[in-house]
Automatic annotation (TrEMBL):
SUPFAM superfamilies: Winged helix' DNA-binding domain (SSF46785). Residues 8-59 form the Helix-turn-helix type domain. Coiled coil: none annotated. Residues 139-206 form the WYL domain. Gene3D superfamilies: Winged helix-like DNA-binding domain superfamily/Winged helix DNA-binding domain. Pfam families: HTH_11, WYL. This is YafY family transcriptional regulator. It comes from Brevibacillus brevis (Bacillus brevis).
Length: 353
């Protein structure tokens, strides 16, 4: 470690309130004892009130008033940092190794009581997020670094479900984590406009010799939201969607990122949204389908028809699956919650539940 790191580490260790000898400090930091003395001399010259006691029970300690300096973290601040690290790591934060080292330092230079409290707080919070692989973390590090240095990237990107890949030069202005996904927002030199891209669809990134200047006051978060969500709920191209249902179902719809943003009216047992027509033909039916009979779509008819189409397609898919698992099926007879399948050639199928 550098001299500055050693000096800060000594401050952290003395902040615990324990009296420590130069040899104990040297052993803890794995440095020479003479280095400890030089660091303490520099700290004292900088105004740190370190007291040295001689004798068998002697050692260095720091005055209590300095230990509570706002330049150091109090208990609540330490807890907040540990909790923030849990969120960051589970979200796929690309600099997890550096984050872990920082938290290790935080725990290393606390006394036993403080460490026990930190461990209790860190074990009391959990975050569930879809895991991301090492390659995506590598891309995130490149994107963040290129955004900071203003360096253009050559990017190969897989577009949509068809898997078609497109190569483009791209100026990354920032990265955004939203709803379990990482996005990058910047200037696409192929399309000559500001675009956003999902990082999990990037297949290759390479640095180029080109550079760029990010616009002043640019907000990657605001640009992403404006591109993904409609700007004006009164836009004539949007479609009114009225849904009735159980209150817990409507609450879940209101909390969803798309429906919550598009909410225009609500009353007891009913909500009204303004959505893009393309979304009603794409993912909205699949999101509403699991709620089954717990909701009723009052309008538009096009969404009701799409729900019926999707439901029929799913039912047919499972019928085909069932026909392949039982050879050859002749009849499915429903009896309440039970059913029995009758086969050809007088083969009796036992009743299943």
């Amino acid at each position: 470690m550098s001299k500055a790191d050693n000096m800060l580490s000594i401050l952290w260790m003395l902040r615990s309130g324990k009296k420590m000898t130069a040899q104990q400090l040297a052993d803890e930091l794995e440095i020479h004892v003479r280095t400890v003395y030089r660091c303490i001399d520099s700290l004292c010259a900088s105004g740190a009130p370190i007291i040295a006691d001689s004798g068998p029970n002697g050692g260095f300690q720091i005055m209590g008033e300095f230990a509570e300096s706002p330049l150091l973290f109090d208990t609540e601040e330490q807890k907040a940092l540990v909790h923030a690290s849990v969120f960051a790591k589970e979200a796929g934060y690309p600099f997890t190794d550096a984050l872990n080292r920082a938290i290790d330092k935080l725990k290393r230079y606390t006394n036993e009581k403080q460490l026990h409290q930190l461990e209790r707080h860190s074990s009391g919070i959990s975050v569930l997020q879809p895991p991301i692989d090492g390659e995506q973390k590598s891309f995130l590090r490149m994107l963040e670094g290129a955004a900071a240095s203003g360096q253009t990237l050559n990017m190969i990107y897989a577009k949509g479900r068809d898997g078609n890949v497109i190569t483009r030069d791209y100026d990354p202005y920032g990265i955004v984590h939203w709803k379990g996904q990482w996005y990058t927002v910047g200037y696409c030199r192929l399309r000559r406009e500001i675009r956003n891209f999902r990082v999990d669809r990037i297949t290759q990134l390479e640095l180029t010799d080109q550079h760029f200047e990010r616009p002043e006051d640019f907000s990657a978060k605001n640009v992403l939201l404006n591109q993904l969500l409609p700007d004006n709920l009164l836009d004539d191209s949007l479609v009114t969607v009225r849904i009735q249902g159980h209150e817990h179902v409507l609450n879940e719809l209101r909390q969803h990122w798309l429906f919550g943003h598009a909410l225009t009216d609500q009353s007891s047992g009913e909500v009204v949204f303004r959505l893009e027509p393309s979304s009603l033909q794409a993912f909205v039916p699949y999101f509403l389908l699991p709620y089954g009979k717990a909701l009723t779509i009052l309008e538009p008819d096009m969404l009701v028809m799409k729900m019926a189409e999707v439901s029929t397609g799913i039912a047919e898919h499972y019928r085909n699956m069932l026909s392949k698992s039982i050879t050859p099926p002749k009849e499915i007879k429903w009896e309440g919650k039970d059913y029995k399948i009758l086969n050809h050639r007088n083969h009796k199928q036992p009743k299943q539940s």
